[in-house]
Every structure is written in C-alpha cells, then in structure tokens.
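Thread: Newbie trying to understand structure tokens

Hi all, I'm a second-year student working on a class project, and my supervisor (Dr. K.) asked me to get a predicted structure for one chain before our next meeting. I've only ever worked with sequences, so writing a 3D structure as a token string is new to me. If someone could post the tokens and maybe explain what I'm looking at, I'd be very grateful. Here's the chain:
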Amino acid sequence: MEVRRIWTSTELNGYLDFPYVAQVFSIERETTALLTGEFRRERVYGVTSLTPEKASPARLLAHNRHHWTIENGLHWIRDWAFDEDRCRIRRGAGARVMASLRNLAISLLRLAGAASISVALRFCSRSRLRPLRLIGLAGV
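---
Reply by user tm_fold:
Sure, no problem. This is what the structure looks like when written as tokens:
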C-alpha cells in the first residue's frame, strides 16, 4: 500500500540557478508491504518549468507516477531481458540503434500478446522462423 503527498512552491524561483524553473516540489512516499508490514518512507525533490497554472500539485504527482510507468514498462524490461546496462556498444549511433531495435522487439512481442517478454524472447530464440512470423514473413 502506498500513500503519496506533494508540496509545491514558487518561492525559490528567484534563488535557483536552474533554467526555466517555474516551481519546485517535494514528494513524500510512504509504503507498507501488505504481507510483511514493512514500512518505508522516501522523500524526493524536483523542479519543473510548468507554472502552477499549467500544472497543479495533483498534475505534478500524476506526471511523476507516469514517469515510473514508462521506466518500469520499458527501460526495466530492456535492462532485465536484454541486459542493456552491460552492453559495450559506445561509438557513433550504435547505442541508440541497439536501443531502438530492443524497443522494436519488445513492441512486436507485446503486439503478439506476449505476457512475459523474457519467456517470449526465449521462445523466439528456439527457431529462426518464429521472429520472422512476428513481422509477417512467415513464408520465408
């Protein structure tokens, strides 16, 4: 179970040496594990270029939660299933190209209805034809 609270302010805008700052915020997360009862409290701080008129505290909190949805849904999978953090490709556009190929593979597997990307990758690795079927080249 998780409880989140947010505090926002424009009071520090004139003091911060941060381009385009419109608001600062603090988010407190209190988490209780339902099975063990373990309690954890975390506080994070941030700045945004969104003015209070464009982003209420509720909207900033929603933006923050949405960010972690992306992180957990794509970046975590790229790191876990493809071991991306240990990739040694560093020159030119190689890292960006490999990230794009990984994103493509994940998207194709999700469109094909894969419940687990890792399981689907292992399934596709057992036959040269399985990945080709995902992109419509079943007869090749």
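A couple of things are worth pointing out once you decode it. The chain has a mean pLDDT of 89. The chain is about 40% helix and 20% strand. Feel free to ask follow-ups in this thread.
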